[in-house]
Amino acid sequence: MLKLSEQVRATPVVEWNGGEPRSLQDEVAVEEPIEIRVGGTAVSVTMRTPGDDFELAAGFLFTERILSGPDDIASIVYGDGPDKRPSANVVNVTLRAGKTVDLARLTRHFYAASSCGVCGKASICAVRVHGIRRPAEDLRIGPTLLAGLPAVLRDRQTAFDRTGGLHAAALLDESGALLDVREDVGRHNAVDKVIGRALLDGRLPLSQQILFVSGRGAFEIVQKALVAGLPVVASVSAPSSLAVELAREYGLTLIGFIRGQRFVVYSGHERLAHASVVV
């Protein structure tokens, strides 16, 4: 799990309230670059919240189809920076002997802003990963469970409580029990971290679990969920059009705008218990 000391940094600010200024110490979310390497070759640079870096690298490489399972990894270590000294902002993944991959197709990721997992991609054709399968269809979830997800996640957003500047991703089972949660300045990074942890623990595919994210249900998040075998993605905000199209294409349940007892189902309504409407 992330340490608060890695996520949060104090800074002096001037607060205006009711027309009156005052100087005080505030806390902001830490954002630093991380370079992910495979066998010493840089394949991605993204902005992230430090901590859980090995999980981030593993999750990213898995959802990009570079890794097919934990056995593909020989080691994950911090690499050397430009000064040839070990850097906490460089992660090098060594693949098992005999594992060959096409790293050239990952050049589209060489820089991606923390707010958008697809910003650095060279073309719209490169956005899609290959080999996605339809998720399991037997999971059923109740509307009461969905309505309670924001409160469950909010209780575990410790860094968000101090900064107000981090996204979160959580894995839950069909009963609504919280299994794992990660926070990061990038919503897609938080998703990679929870999927990466599951990969390293040998828990994939996540065919009977729910992914809940604090931001919007973007295309990249839906795609990562599908690669991990997740049948349900829920968020407190809106999905994008491309996310909806992808969810419908593969039969994933996509839910947005969870506010109180209200939420909107954009795809896969049949997984809701007692569902009678087809979307």
Q: What is the strand and helix layout of this fold?
A:
Blueprint: H1 4-7, E1 8-17, E2 20-29, E3 32-38, E4 41-48, H2 53-63, E5 73-80, E6 86-95, H3 143-147, H4 149-154, H5 158-163, E7 167-173, E8 178-184, H6 187-200, E9 209-213, H7 219-227, E10 232-235, H8 241-250, E11 253-259, E12 262-267
Parallel strand pairs: 3-6, 9-10, 10-11
Antiparallel strand pairs: 1-2, 3-4, 5-6, 7-8, 7-9, 11-12
Question: Which key features would you list for this structure?
Answer:
279 residues, alpha/beta, Ubiquitin-like (UB roll), Cytidine Deaminase, domain 2, four-stranded mixed sheet, 12 strands, 23% helix, 32% strand
Q: What can you see in these coordinates?
A:
The protein has 279 residues and is of the alpha/beta class. The protein has two domains: 32-126, Ubiquitin-like (UB roll) (Roll); 143-271, Cytidine Deaminase, domain 2 (3-Layer(aba) Sandwich), CATH 3.40.140. Helix content is 23%, strand content 32%. It contains eight helices and twelve strands. A hairpin with a 2-residue loop joins strand 1 and strand 2 (20-29). The longest helix is centred in the C-terminal third of the chain and has 14 residues, at 187-200. The mean pLDDT is 86.
Indicate the radius of gyration in whole angstroms. Answer: 19 Å
Number of helices: 8
Q: What separation lies between the terminal Cα atoms?
A: 37 Å
The biggest beta sheet is recorded as: 6 strands, mixed
